[in-house]
Description:
Blueprint: H1 2-104, H2 106-126, H3 132-160, H4 167-172, H5 182-203, H6 212-238, H7 256-277, H8 283-311, H9 313-338, H10 342-372, H11 385-398, H12 401-411, H13 419-424, H14 441-469, H15 474-493, H16 497-500, H17 504-520, H18 522-528, H19 552-557, H20 561-587, H21 592-617, H22 632-642
Helix pairs in contact: 1-2, 1-3, 2-3, 3-5, 3-6, 6-7, 6-8, 7-8, 7-9, 8-9, 8-10, 9-10, 10-14, 11-14, 11-15, 12-14, 14-15, 14-17, 15-17, 18-20, 18-21, 21-22
Amino acid sequence: MAVGVNGNGRHAADEEARAEVDVLNSRLEKTTQLTKKIQACLGRLEATGKSVREVAGPLNGETKKLQVLGNNIDAVITAIERLRQPADSKNDEEQIIRMGPDKAGLSNYLASIKRLNKALGDMKASNLRSTQQTVAELQRLVKSGNTQLENSFDKLLRSETPRSIEPLHFITKSKPFPTLSQDKFARLGLMNSYVAGVHRQSGGGAAPQESPVAKIYAEVRSQYLSSTLGNLAAASTNTAKKKNPEAIYRSGTNGIGTYAQAMEGLLIAEYENICNIFMREDWGPVFQATCQPSLVELSRTLRELNAHIKTHMNTDCYLAYEIVEIVSGLSNNLERRTGELKASLAASLKPVRETAKSSLAELLEDTKRRVAALQMMPTDGAPIPIISETMQRLQSMVDFLRPISSIMISLGDGGWKSVAAARAGGGGEAIPSLASFDIGADGKEIFAHYCTDTIDVLMASIEARARVLLQNRKPVIGVFLANSVTIIERMIQDSELSPLLEGRRAQALDVWRKKATSLYTDTCRDISVHLFDVIHTSRGQRPTSGQGAVDSAMIMKGLGSKDKENIKTKFTAFNAAFDDMVMRHRQYSMEREVRQMFAKDVQNMIEPLYNRFWDRYHEVDKGKGKYVKYDKAAISAVFTSLY
């Protein structure tokens, strides 16, 4: 029974399971059918969406265009509203412009012009035909406003600028030259800032000196500078004309120093004005434009002085050296303070600097020409003026050693030996730096070399001319050369040349001193011939010499009659020649040092020979003095008198 019950339970469970499977299969089939329906719906939906997109795409683009158009219309409406505002306020701005900057107030006036410029720019950018009349009216107002501003700048600047001032008042009292007042700096600076900005915008970055206010400034202030410096420029040329044209120029006697000092003070003050009014990039151009008329006048003045110097080279070459130093100092000081004008001043100085360079060689050539042109020389050997004149020239050069050293360094050692080389040497127009005016060892050495060259040229020239004019009379030429050497040496010792030529002086002059001595003592050699004896003793034995006391009587006994006559002739000839030499020595025009030098030379050459001859042969006339005119004491006294 139990088995039957269990079998029925399993059968019921199987049936229940089959029923569940059938249910699941039925649901799966429904799901499959539903899926197919969904897929069919999706296909239809995709086809419908594609059609919708094809229709909606153009509508979306048109919508965006309409949105952009709407935005543009809104912007135009806004711009029109904005453009109407200046037109509406034009009357207010016009009233301010008509009042001018003085009545309306500078800040208010500038703000009004700026508003007008902005409105004008906006209207031009819109390019609307309906605003053309307003644009024209705004342009007229802006132009009127700018013109009034420029006129106000001109008026204010002229009111602060005197026609001229007295520069000597500031120089003598060591006062700085005047500048514009601080309150005017502010007003002028504001005006320039606006006008220069407008000028740059309209001119595409044109040069600052072309700005209207820059032109006004340069015109007004340049007239003031020129008027102030005019009298000093004229004084510089007038003081170059000396009462005595032959007088050597002395340092500081020309007005160029005061002229340059005033110019430096004025231009530095002017640069300070410009720096307080104009923008940094405008300083240099405006300063150059303002100074230009004064620089032109300086160039003209220097050309006139240069012409004067060339005409009076011997006496006024020193003015050229002084100008080189003064204008170079002016240039260096201005460049240090402003950074400007060096090229302009170099161009102005160039003619004078070239003259200064060539003068060194031309002075040497002039020395040669003047000596060669001499038609006569003193027959007593007296010195000629060109000796002292040449040395005075060298003495005067010491006062200008700074610029001369600079010029000589630029020429190079020996560069003065020809005029052509001096004119070609030394580079271009550049102004030497301040350091080049420091007189170092090189500058002194080169100047000393120039001095010795000058002395050599002078002495060689006068010797050559003396040999022609004095017909080769050696003693006179010797006196002449010795006098020249003595004067040269004295003028060196008594001046600032002495320390500069120390060491070179002896070397330069000893050669000529020895030559002078040789020429002068040539007569002594002729006289000495009479004191050389060639004798024959009767016993065939030459009298002893230098062996103790000489017995003249014994020597004479040993001579034959022919030798005795020869001794008498020698004494007679010596007396005549010696007396003639003494007479000439006393007649020659000699410097004290020369007379003593030659007296010593003559004594040293003749006295020992005569004493020897006298010791041996004075008994030839047995003390009667017929042939033996001088004993040793007498001839010594004569030599002493020659000193």
